[in-house]
Amino acid sequence: MKAETKHHQLEAESIMMPNRAKTFAWAAQFLPKQTRKDFGVLYTFCRYVDDGVDHCSNKEMAARFLDQVSRDLEDNRSSDQEVAAFLTLARHRDIPLGFAFDLVRGVRTDIGFEQTESLEDLLRYSYQVAGTVGIMICYLLEVNGSDALAAAIDLGIGMQLTNIARDLREDFARGRIYLPADLIDRPTVAEALGGSLPAQARVVDVIKQVIVTSQTYYQSAENGICFLPLDTKLSILCAGRAYRQIGQLILKNPERIFNERVATHAHEKALCLISSLLSLSQVKFHRVEISASHESALHRPLKGLPSFDVACR
User: Fold this and answer.
1) Tag placement on the chain: N or C end, fewer CB within 10 Å?
2) Has residue 205 got a pLDDT over 70?
3) pLDDT class of 290 with cuts at 50, 70, 90
């Protein structure tokens, strides 16, 4: 079957998003229909790469899976419908495949992974698995200026840092700790998840640092809304603010992460929608010439990563 046919079949994958990514699905409803379908294809590919590693029964199988994805990207064709549909989308929207390669490199580090060494390492990882996705969304929206891409990277990093703070229990169950080792050690995290209150207090301190860092990236990302097409601004702004709200909920009651997966509910999403609509009445979200310049220090840890150097040269 031709990849183009598979692409149309995979448009139905966006229907799965409410079960897998409620915040993204909610925000995506504000996109134009075709853009929403294309977003579903991109999301499905990214989930396929990430889940492929998590679902493999051993390291060797996970490595072979990513090797095959990499070969398919190199060949620009695939027998896997998720990859084939993405390649069709990439050709149609002129998405450089280097960003997909960096996504695969980032996911590959999860194989046999135990703990991130430093905040700088965490930011580099967050770029690879989420900042690259932000860039590909920019290309999907036919926006590829360096300032716009910088903001897209920041939105991806902010979201990934939120994921890391929220998913501590889930990640630990897979043997992974993304909280930097130079801030907290593995035994302390294990004790915290086992119910030790002193250990939980130490973990909470680090979680707060991660969330506060994410807030800086979210704010930088909002400075890039002015570069987006008018009919996509609301969706992207809502997505960022809804995800940012997850971090703020954790800051209000950080102990929740030890017992539940913190999420935004309908009333909180409604408030994000209202605030986004009000914000879009402000000139700064539409006038490039008065938007804040990007803070270069936010990307200092990313220098040397192949696709980052291409995107932000």
Assistant:
1) C
2) yes
3) low
Residue 140 CA to residue 142 CA, distance in Å, equals: 5
Residue with structure tokens 């169950």?
A: 173
Sequence spans of domains, the chain: 3-311
- Cα 273 from Cα 292, distance rounded (Å): 23
Give the DSSP letter of residue 293: P
Tokens of residue 100, six digits: 């997909």
Cα 160 to chain centroid, rounded: 5
- Listed in sequence order, the residues at least 6 apart from 44 whose beta carbon sits closer than 8 Å to its beta carbon are 10, 13, 14, 16, 82, 85, 86
Distance CA 302, CA 106 (A): 13
Whole-Å CA distances, 3 to 36, 79, 84, 139: 19, 8, 5, 20
Q: What pLDDT, in 10s, does the model give residues 14-45?
A: 434 545 578 889 999 999 999 999 999 999 99
Question: To 5 degrees, how large is the angle CA 135–CA 141–CA 147?
Answer: 50
Q: Helix or strand or coil: residue 38?
A: helix
Alpha-carbon gap, residue 230 to 304, rounded angstroms: 33
pLDDT at 284: 86
**Domain spanning 3-311 has what CATH number?**
1.10.600.10
pLDDT given for residue 309 in this prediction? 76
**Residue found by looking up tokens 């695969």 in the block:** 104
